[in-house]
Structures are given as structure tokens and as C-alpha cells.
Specification:
alpha/beta, 2 domains, globular, 6-stranded parallel beta sheet, binds zinc ion, 46% helix, 362 residues
């Protein structure tokens, strides 16, 4: 087997119900280690909620609330970066903390990269383009499943280039995670399911692909097994034990998540054209990809039934030709994962007609 890429993981994590209370001491440690204020990026869902009052910001710090009703775009990253730079006035923060779901965790990572690297977000969409280390980052997920807490990317939608692509870099990785399953207790059930399934999807795509290594395979198998326990087991998927299991599955699955397959490209098409959130878009994608992932499709169907989640049909019924073209282009542009799944000749399998028939079935 080939030698793996030199792989970085998140160096520190804290896990357990109630761990959020330790955020203050983690930030205080940074205040002692570096000058500059602390920046916090918090999901707007928590604005005026008890969690916002527990964010350990002091005078001179800045809290940014991130609107998560849409996926992070390069324009929003650029806007936050320029506001943050104006606020910092030439200084660097002692740390940047992201508190939220995947969108917020990715937003904090992307903005942090732009604090030490000149230019616009889209200049760093790709692999190994970030040249300077970002400020110290602390990640606090409040939703489990995306793996954003431990991935080396931050997925950004670029409408102009019609693609979803992150800043794949070791500098994007968080320096510290704080994993408190209690924070996910108030997530609506549907959202918990869709987002949780993202872990299952990443790992299924990874293990069914051709870019493989023993470590990633082992992590994927573990996260898939945990997903089965959570979504097909006897206990409720949001039972206390499962909240923690889901948070850990997301973390383990996130470490395996570099190489996706067909589900994520098709999902990206939906997000680009219909602005559909990532988790539910993945579910729609797998719902029509049974011929490529037969076993997993069957498992997924059973999970939906068990958790009483449904996907209303006909979402691509009344689209314009331009939108249909966007769905095709927004999927097929993701060559790396499609080659991972189907080989260099993937366009012979995923013809325009074939891709459009997948969307028509949703
Ligand atoms: Zn994903």
C-alpha cells in the first residue's frame, strides 16, 4: 500500500457532558500565551439564548454571530474577515473560537486563515494554498455529524465558480476541541438526523472509494458501526448515551472524511442550485444512489423509517433549464471524488442524462 500523506490531527480535545464550562480556562490560557483579543464565532441560533451568555468574552473581545440559514459562501467569509481585520487594527487575536454546527466551525476556520493570509477566500479554495499558519483556534461543535471539528478543510460555496470547495490545509485544522454532547440536546430531531448521517455518508464514500489507507478504513468502519448503533439501535437516537456517541462518531468520521465519492458531489449540486443545507442534501443524494451503494442505501432507508424521517419527493420537478444545467455542472465539477468512486472515466457513467435522471427521482 502507498505511503499516506503526512497527516495532521487536532492535537487536543476535551470530551464530556458539561465540558463547555471549561472554555473559559482554555481561552484564559491563550490570553496568557499571546497578546490580542479573543474572537468568537457563534451560531446566530444562540443569540439571546443561555449559551450566548456563557461565552467567556471579556471587554476588548469580539463576538460575531453567524447566520447559518445558508451554507457559508466566500463572500460572507470575506466580509467577516474584513470586519475582523478592521477591529483588530493590525494585531492578531490570541485565539479564534467557533461555537456552532459545521457551518460556523468552517466559517471560523476560513476567517482565521484570512487573518494571516492576504487576499480573498476564493484564492485559497483548493489544496495547500494557505501559506501562513492561522491564529490559534478552538472548536466547539453544537451539532454532530459534519466532522468539521477535525477536518483540514472548511467547505465554502462559490456561486461565481459554481462549486463547493474548502481551504484544504494543515493550517485549517483546529488546535483544540471542546466536545460537550449536552450542547446538541436541543437540536431539532430532523436536523440531528440529517447532520448525523453526514458521518455515515463520508465514511461509506471513503470505504467504497479507491483512495484508501488502513487508518482511514479503520476510522470509517468504526464511525459506520457507531452510526448503525445510534440510528438502528434500540435506544432513541437522542438518548444521552447516543448524544455522546454521535459526537464521537462525528469526530472519528471527520478524521476519515478526506475522500468522498458520489454522494457529496450530487449533494453539492443541490446546495449550489437549491441552497439546500448539506445534511439533508446528502440524504436526498443517497436516496437516489442505490445502484452505486446498494447495501448502504438499504441501511439508510431503514434508518429513515426507524427514526420517522421522510424526504418529500419532487424537489427538482419544476426547475428551469438553467437550474437543471446548474445541478449537472455543480455535481460533475467535483472530479476528485468522482474519480475516487468511479475511476477516470466517470463521465461515461455519469452522463448528463444520467445525472439529470438522478435529480428527477428526488
Ligand atoms: Zn459532508
Amino acid at each position: 500500500m502507498a505511503i499516506t500523506r503526512n497527516t495532521k490531527n487536532v492535537p487536543y480535545y476535551l470530551l464530556g457532558a458539561g465540558a463547555f464550562d471549561q472554555l473559559e480556562s482554555l481561552v484564559d490560557e491563550r490570553r496568557r500565551a499571546a497578546t490580542g483579543p479573543a474572537l468568537f464565532f457563534v451560531d446566530h441560533y444562540f443569540q439571546n439564548k443561555p449559551l450566548a451568555a456563557r461565552v467567556p468574552a471579556i471587554a476588548g473581545d469580539r463576538v460575531f454571530f453567524v447566520n447559518t440559514s445558508a451554507e457559508p459562501t466566500v463572500e460572507v467569509v470575506d466580509a467577516f474577515a474584513s470586519t475582523a481585520k478592521a477591529f483588530l487594527n493590525g494585531a492578531q487575536p490570541c485565539c479564534v473560537t467557533g461555537i456552532g454546527g459545521g457551518a460556523v466551525l468552517d466559517m471560523a476556520k476560513a476567517v482565521a486563515n484570512l487573518l494571516t493570509n492576504p487576499g480573498l477566500a476564493e484564492e485559497y479554495q483548493g489544496w495547500e494554498l494557505v501559506k501562513h499558519p492561522a491564529p490559534y483556534k478552538i472548536g466547539v461543535p453544537t451539532l454532530s455529524g459534519t466532522g468539521a471539528e477535525c477536518s483540514r478543510t472548511c467547505v465554502l460555496t462559490n456561486m461565481r465558480r459554481k462549486l463547493k470547495l474548502g481551504m484544504n490545509s494543515d493550517f485549517t485544522v483546529y488546535d483544540q476541541l471542546l466536545l460537550d454532547p449536552e450542547l446538541t440536546r436541543s437540536v431539532p430531531r430532523d436536523q440531528y438526523f440529517y447532520t448525523g448521517l453526514d458521518t455515515f455518508m463520508h465514511c461509506v464514500e471513503s470505504i467504497r472509494g479507491s483512495y484508501r489507507n488502513v487508518i482511514v478504513d479503520s476510522l470509517s468502519r468504526t464511525a459506520i458501526a457507531m452510526s448503525e448503533e445510534i440510528f438502528l439501535g434500540d435506544k432513541d437516537m437522542m438518548d444521552e448515551e447516543n448524544l455522546e456517541k454521535m459526537m464521537v462518531a462525528s469526530y472519528i468520521g471527520g478524521m476519515a472524511a478526506g475522500n468522498v465519492g458520489i454522494i457529496h458531489p450530487v449533494s453539492a449540486g443541490l446546495s449550489i442550485v437549491l441552497h439546500m443545507p448539506h445534511g439533508i442534501a446528502n440524504c436526498y443524494a443517497l436516496s437516489v444512489l442505490g445502484e452505486f451503494y446498494p447495501e448502504e442505501h438499504a441501511q439508510f432507508t431503514e434508518m429513515m423509517a426507524r427514526q420517522k424521517v421522510s424526504l418529500p419527493k419532487g424537489i427538482c420537478k419544476n426547475l428551469t433549464d438553467e437550474q437543471l444545467d446548474g445541478l449537472y455542472q455543480g455535481s460533475i465539477v467535483h472530479e476528485k471524488p468522482l474519480i475516487n468512486a468511479l475511476g477516470e472515466d466517470f463521465k461515461k457513467i455519469l452522463t448528463r442524462e444520467k445525472v439529470l435522471s438522478l435529480f428527477a427521482n428526488m
